[in-house]
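Let's practice the habit of predicting before peeking. Look at the sequence and jot down your guess about where helices and strands might fall. Then scroll down.
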Amino acid sequence: MAALSASALVLAACGGGDSSSGSSESADTQTLRLSHQWPAPQGDEGDFRSLLAQRFSDAVNEKTGGSVQIDVFPNSTISESTEQYDAMTSGAIDLSVFPLDYASGQVPEFSITLMPTLPRSHAEAQQWQTAEIGKRIEEITEENGVKILTWVWNAGAIGSKGDPIVVPDDISSGMKMRAAGSYVEEMLKNAGAGISSLPSSEIYSAMQTGVLDAAVTSTGSFDSYNLQEQVSSYTSPTKDYTFWFMFEPLIISTSAWEKLSPEQQTALEEAGTELQDFAYEAAEEDDARVEQVFTDAGVEVVAMDEAAFSEWQTLAEDVWADFAQNVEGGDELLELAKEASN
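Done guessing? Here is the structure:
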């Protein structure tokens, strides 16, 4: 309750208005709140997910002639990274660039969007949008209170304070690791790791204090949180193989969406669609850019090959089976994900 009151105070201070309305203006003019977890961009520089949010805000303002204004709150300033789905469905915020798996506790089906080794590359990830699995994901999100405006996929890397982690046998028994996604965590446990669950923004301090020996997160987060200062080795996804791909789309709550006029809805859809190529291209470019940052910092940079990836995929099959058995409709989602990732 205290957290809710604090959020309400922040929103009031920012001109957010009545959180139950999803906007602070009349039916004709809407001010929407977009929250995300990454640092604010500096002009055209910064985490591409943060840039995506700002570019979307600018485009919507231009397309609607100011009748829809989107205030962007970066760096989890009004909602913690893992709590943004709840904030959207309660009306505290309206939009987010949000890793759907963070809400898998509320919507277990969302875990299909962070299933180890599905997909393995940007090319495979991008196939999901037009495949049957993409249609199902869009249906599931809208059934659960949010609508996808731009598809965003992030490849993951592995950073270690010791030797590189390329195959499962590189994980020593009890190695303390962080990896977003309950099924990724389960796979790493099966390889011998001890898991510490924490936001990517806390990896730096956890490594600095010895809480973590290694971490898996997106390449962009490795750079945004300066993890080159804490790791000695870095397993890059630049050779088209990684067991960790996370779906982090730009989404809007359906309650906020329904308060927009048809013309305003069209403007938001157009802005999201026009940013789609940027989202895909920037994600791939980030992998190469971050690899260079780590190389320049003197970190040992390696990559998986197909043989190494196959070892992870074999290990992943057990957690696939858990998802298929324990999540309603999980078997269907898993088969559709496999089809799109071939």
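How did you do? The chain has two domains: 13-155+246-287, 156-244+298-340.
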